[in-house]
Write a structure and sequence with these properties.
The chain has about 70 residues and is mostly helical. The chain is built from 3 helices and no strands. It has helices at about 1-15, 30-45, 50-70. The radius of gyration is 12 Å and the shape is elongated.
Length: about 70
């Protein structure tokens, strides 16, 4: 059950991350990354790794996006 919740959180974070690739919406990653961290914690408490891995992917993409643009754009 926790894995399903983690997957749902990961999909929501991923859906928010897609339009955040636009330069004007890049600051949304400051909200997306904590959401994905919560999903990763929930996924770590489950017996399966799919939800945790999805959230870790969203976290890595978000951090890389912020690092490449200096955290602003």
């Amino acid at each position: 059950m926790l894995n399903i919740v983690s997957i749902i959180i990961g999909v929501v974070a991923l859906l928010f991350a897609i339009p955040a690739f636009l330069p004007i919406l890049a600051l949304a990653y400051y909200l997306i990354i904590p959401l994905a961290i919560i999903g990763a914690v929930v996924g770590a408490a489950s017996s399966s790794n799919v939800g945790r891995n999805l959230n870790l992917l969203v976290i890595v993409v978000g951090v890389l996006r912020l690092m490449l643009t200096g955290g602003l754009f």
